[in-house]
Amino acid sequence: MGDQHKPAAPDARDFLAVDTSLDAEEGSIRDTVRDFATRELLPHVADWFEAGTIPDPRGLAKAFGDLGVFGMHLEGYGCAGTSAVAYGLACRELEAVDSGLRSFVSVQGSLAMTAIHRYGSEEQKREWLPRMAAGEAIGCFGLTEPDSGSDPGSMRTRARRDGSDWILDGTKMWITNGSVADVAVVWATTEEGIRGFLVPAGTPGFSANVIHRKLSLRASITSELVLDGVRLPESARLPGAAGLGAPLSCLNEARYGIVWGVAGAARACYEAALEYAGTRVQFGRPIAAFQLTQRKIADMVVDVNSAALTALQIGRLKDAGACHHTQVSYGKFANVAAAQRVAGAARSIHGANGITLEYPVLRHLLNLETVATYEGTEEVHALSLGQAVTGIPAFR
What we know:
Enzyme class: oxidoreductase
Strand order of the largest sheet: 4-5-9-8
Strand content: 15-25%
Protein name: glutaryl-CoA dehydrogenase (ETF)
CATH superfamily of the largest domain: Butyryl-CoA Dehydrogenase, subunit A, domain 3
Structural class: alpha+beta
Domain Acyl-CoA dehydrogenase/oxidase C-terminal: 243-389
Shape: globular
InterPro entries: Acyl-CoA_DH_CS, Acyl-CoA_Oxase/DH_mid-dom, Acyl-CoA_Oxase/DH_mid-dom_sf, AcylCo_DH-like_C, AcylCo_DH/oxidase_C, AcylCoA_DH/ox_N, AcylCoA_DH/ox_N_sf, AcylCoA_DH/oxidase_NM_dom_sf
Family: Belongs to the acyl-CoA dehydrogenase family.
Number of helices: 10
Oligomer: single chain
Number of strands: 11
CATH architecture of the largest domain: Up-down Bundle
CATH topology of the largest domain: Butyryl-CoA Dehydrogenase, subunit A, domain 3
Number of domains: 3
Helix content: 40-55%
Radius of gyration: 22 Å
Largest sheet: 4 strands, antiparallel
């Protein structure tokens, strides 16, 4: 048959040619977000990580709004209405720079905006969603509490009726963007069950305190929300949200973004290690020439491409309306673990250089420690998978 039919050698950066199955629009969105992230975010992220904050969160929000990534998978109200795969690709390219930056977008779009879009009144949607999509208003999502993480149903935040108003008391913890948010989506237990409320910044009795001394997700603003006798009108309640299923459905949207995002972090670590191994010379040879290094690289290739395939398949299922929440758990469980393995191996290949911010690998490795536990811990997703295939719940 001749050599003209011999397949081309695989691309080291997309070994299984996963991205060749993207359509033109998906490829364009990928390229647009990747170019923005490389140009506007990557040169600064190490400094932000070292400083433990985002110096200009409102400027970043406006830039993300101009890019069109806030709530991009939602329909109407200034949102782009893209496919789930397109949104996933945006998450992948952002987290290839830093998990904290993808979290900024996920919390705004998949948590706060999705809660309003799915459960809010028409007035609430019109008031908040266009401004949030444009990056002119920032939202946060208050579910987790100091003593209520994996078991949100045990939350202690309470909302009680007082005439036609509601009075909220409680504390929320580990809230991304809490101290810079214009509106907080807060979940509370009432006599009728769990309900959601929109709490605008500046409401009397509502405060947000920045959490300092983090060793992970440092290029991100994390806060504690305190509600001390916060009085809200009935119009602040999300009318469509009834029960724990409402906030959990929003969390599933955020978990979906993580499935893609960590694939980007893994790819970034792998590419950094591949380049470093090819240029770092020891014993007269680049360290990529040694068998132990090549084994690490081979394992990374498998993890990076498996994560990319997993994200794409779950995205296709989501776009077809056929994605079960346990399949998202599968993706988070598998892809976070894969990304952690890749980041750890990449750090070892970099040697002492791997612990500095001159290279991205330890920054990603530390960030992934947070990603492994938020939006459902590794253990919770393992139990979700176990129940899905055995039919036996093991949570209690």
